[in-house]
Amino acid sequence: MDRKGLPKDEVMRLVSGMKELDISFGSGRIFGSMCTSPHPIAAEVDGMFLESNLGNPGLYPGTLEMEQEIISMLGSLLHLDRIYGHVLSGGTEANITALYRAKKITGRKKVIFPASAHFSVLKALSLLDMEPVMIPLDEDFRMDVQQMEDHLDDEAALVLSVAGTTELGVVDPVDRIGSITGDVPLHVDAAFGGFVLPFLETLHPGDHGIPPWDFRVKEVTSLSVDPHKMGGSTIPAGCLLFREEAPLKHISVSSPYLTSTKAYTLAGTRDSGAVAAAYAVMKHLGREGYERIVAACMDNTSYLEKRLRELGLEPVIEPVMNILAVHHPDPDLVQERMRKRGFFLSRVRDPPALRFVVMPHVTRASIDVMIPELEGALKD
Ligand SMILES: Cc1ncc(COP(=O)(O)O)c(C=O)c1O
Prior knowledge:
14% strand, alpha/beta, binds pyridoxal-5'-phosphate, 7-stranded mixed sheet
């Protein structure tokens, strides 16, 4: 650090220069992110809560009330009247916390999860020194229930399933999984799908083809869903929800010099602006607002699929959600060529495929700009 500070306008010039290096969602060039521009109300509200710290909640009863309201709004969306939970920093912290709690409650280490699970599960397993049992996928890229059952025994601490996989957006058969887990806790990672699937279900009643995946499945003990992905919130906001009361008491420690006597979450000092932002955007949009957003994303997903087919790129599956993957033998090469052209796609490992996440910032106009670039990149 320099001895003498700089005048504000000079610092702002430096910061603006750095900001220009970043790629904004508004550029229309980001096709591989599961986050998007926060809703304007979320951005505005976030800045009002810069001082709040849910790590010391006694000082911030208003912020705490918003956290509890978020959990209860999600309870009504995900079919559980009496719900418990916390707003954490995202899907990774939620998965780590869910595994930590399972280890503490059961005293066991074995975690059963599908090959499609997000890499945060591997992070959690390594951190907690738990034992991975990775289950292969069936022909629809969902956890193979038969193989899961073969590995289920009284050594298992947790079964983790995914509602909206990161790579393909598919939903594990949570109802069938729940029918065989018995006493083993069942966690659903709906970090991405949690703000998409409920609205797809109401947009297409009767023919959405999505099996029950939330608290309707009575064996589901915990579920994670991230407002900072399809929820329109600012970063960082990811919720971990529980069916049982005092869910995190098993991992709590005493916090003698704070306003509350127990600390329940992994983080001490906690971002709270994003909690207020998530509350504001959920109140503002309501179910109808989210339905409109999800309908638009699905419409754009169909449009993108049509444009990609015109280039000879075939979808790996008919998209369930606003994630579209198309077969390509060398997705890394295409991804790199597109990056050089200033466009950001993602990829799938198995089968090799190019992956597009059709977030609210992806529009028909941005697709129309990207497609000729992709056509060029395929030939480079
Ligand atoms: C299904 C799923 N779970 C967990 C995560 C991790 O979320 P975060 O990056 O917010 O920690 C992701 C991220 O994309 C995800 O798709």
